[in-house]
Amino acid sequence: MANKDVFDEEDVQRINAEYESLVSNLIRCNKPGDRELIDKAFKLANEAHWNMRRKSGEPYVIHPICVAKIVNQEIGLGARSIATALLHDVVEDTEYTLNDIEKDFGPKIASLIDGLTKISGTYNKETSTSMQAENFRKMLLTLSDDLRVILIKIADRLHNMRTLESMPEHKKMKVAGETIFLYAPLAHRLGLYAIKSELEDLSFKFRQPQIYDEIIGKLKHTEKRISR
User: Fold this and answer.
1) What value, to the nearest 5°, has the Cα angle with vertex 166 and ends 207 and 205?
2) Which of 41, 51, 142, 160 has the fewest CB atoms within 10 Å, i.e. the most exposed one?
3) pLDDT, tens digit, for every residue of 124-154?
């Protein structure tokens, strides 16, 4: 994909299609004001991330939309968590502040985003393997504050793993290592067994690509034999 600096009509259509995919399949969002809150969060996120792109070249706001989908459709959280997912990178990556978020969305969503930003500050650094256990304990401490922070962070990591292919090799290895040591065990602890399994599979795919490809090849061969 060409890495254009300014969004064009194709980018706008992609963003709108992704957002429509989110809001047309919402679950547990039937309370008055739920849809308005989600629309408001998307509007701010889209504005904040305008003309920003991921390494893949796609509009950056696609990432928080996809995280919001996971939060709602795969984990089952409601409108406030969806709004938080849409806004989760705004404070860290744009000129918007936590005070701006609190002013527009209230203290609870601002608190959730603050928790997510603090976790990012801990885990997005280059760390040695010996630091993994300590980082894991620090992350668990936030469970006593609001479990949704951890659930949204797991959703964020899942989407990052699903789109890891576009990252440099050293980054793939770092993220995949963090995932198997930190996020997959967290997902298991929280009963997110399907997400835990996918995180493990994706981590294995990037950490041991040759063995992974061999296993996939054998599985496909077995499926062909069974379907005959």
Assistant:
1) 25
2) 51
3) 445 445 456 566 666 666 555 788 999 999 9
